[in-house]
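INTERNAL AUDIT FORM
Audit reference: QA-55
Scope: verify that the stored structure record matches its stored sequence.
Auditor: D.O.
Record contents follow.
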Amino acid sequence: MGKVHVFDHPLILHKLHVLRDKDTPVKEFRELISEIAMLMCYEATRDLPLEDVEVETPVALAKCKRLAGKKVAIVPILRAGLGMVDGMVSMIPNAKVGHIGLFRDPETLEPVKYYFKMPPDIQERDVIVVDPMLATGGSASASLTFLKEAGAKHIKLMCIIGCPEGVARIQKDHPDVDIYVAGLDSHLNDHGYIVPGLGDAGDRIFGTK
């Protein structure tokens, strides 16, 4: 079963409280989403492999560590996931970025893929799927399925806020995927919103509320 990592770093928790505030303006909200994603990136990449290397400093040779050539792909779920990309890329400049676009079929209520563009070597990369909210888990689960069908083998899911229903869905459908969240909230309401949550992340990022 994939692990659920809930962050307790003071900087993340502080930024999260401002993010939740209904009066936080679009510009600040967008910046906070990016900053939290950047901070979460540290923990989500903790297991990247390292190799030994020697570096010549102005004084002497130093025995150092560097990333062992492991390639990373960041995959936002459109549209809200886009808000997390810049923060992630600032930490991993060489990461490639894929995109997944989904909509819900009004009759079957199942997620339908309308856009799917990945790096050609996605099967060789450590993939981090990003979306601010893990609510029902339907979109995230479908995205993980589409990635596996494309050959991705090592996938993590990183969301800013999750809830037990979404976590349970991912663990049921994708028990091999670790989940990273900055906050794990109480439940979903009748409209599918996380409680207490922060409202519609996409609307608040792009100012369309």
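Auditor finding: record pair retrieved intact. The chain has a mean pLDDT of 93.
Action required: none
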